[in-house]
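Service request form, structural biology core

Requester: graduate student, group of Dr. S.
Request type: structure prediction, single chain
Budget code: on file
Notes: please return the result as structure tokens.

Sequence provided:
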Amino acid sequence: MRPLSTMFACLLAAAPASAQVVGEAANAGSGSNAAGAVVGQVPGAMSAPALTPSASPGLQGSVFAAPSAPVPGKAGVIPALAASAIIPIDPAAMPAKKGDYSPSEWGKLVTDAKDEGTKAVLSARPGDKPADPQMTVKLNNGETVSGAFRGLSDGKMIFQTGGKFVGLKMDANNIEEVRRQTDVIFDGSGSYGHEEVVVHNRPAVADPFKDAARYKGRVVDIDTRDLDDLKWSAQTLSGRVIKADGNEILLESAKGQYHIQREFHRIDKMALRTDHYSSKGQIGSISEVAGKIPDGGPAEVVLMGGKTVKGRFFGVRKDAQGSFILMEVASGSGTAFRAFRDFSDLRTPGYVKGGLLADAETVYTNPEK
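Core staff response, request fulfilled:
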């Protein structure tokens, strides 16, 4: 495989759809004095403020400021605006990459990712089928990147969008949603289809007293402390969210109700739990399993004949032939999406009636903890 810098240079000229880039390039030059860097909005592909480099010579790291008009009544005063999270990449400044990741190395990258948005992007490995996964990544500042995921460089996830290259920092915890164009293999028939799948949709929790409302009806674990006794009052409260109005979170548990109030309590961490589910003997049609397992949640589908397929559940879809469930399953060194129309059970792993999955997804950590 050609070096990453060479690959990028070729892609600028031809951008072949079959090009595959997997691996890490050492010391990428997005922060050097790189002439010809990609700066600005990519029409129809990238939604971001128009960017201009700082006044100092060259590109100062990956920090760019959106151009601003002077403040009315204050001649010459330009307000400082937040830098874009979309980092222009200059392919000419990219050095030769160190080498391709092996399947196990790439798998470790996914496992070690510290936030779910990064995991969702990395779960589509460049070079796997379909090559150069097409994605739309929405950030929590309103910016959007749409294009092909091409690999990694200098701690950034690299996307080709509109013939140009941009990067997003890994584990920045700023990815709200990831949509991916996927090929779908229909079980039994072997036929193919195409679907856009939301592989991640989890806006960051900034204020748990308010944002916990989006999990109404779900079970959460909340690590909390009394404001007047931070040292000795730490406890974990678990229950189903009844309400969260900005001032109070009300949880319902087997032991009764918990009132967590902003006036008296500090929240250190909040984790989301998933109820166990099994469709066996509970449904009359495939459509009835919709929403029973969270999209992206672990699941098992038991096929007619007893074979079990494990993976992640991505909801119920419908086409001219009727309804089907969509699962992301292991396939070779990566994953593939499979559709199932006939099955005897769709369930969470280790199903226990009335129980909860053992693992919990952390959705908030207090930065002052």
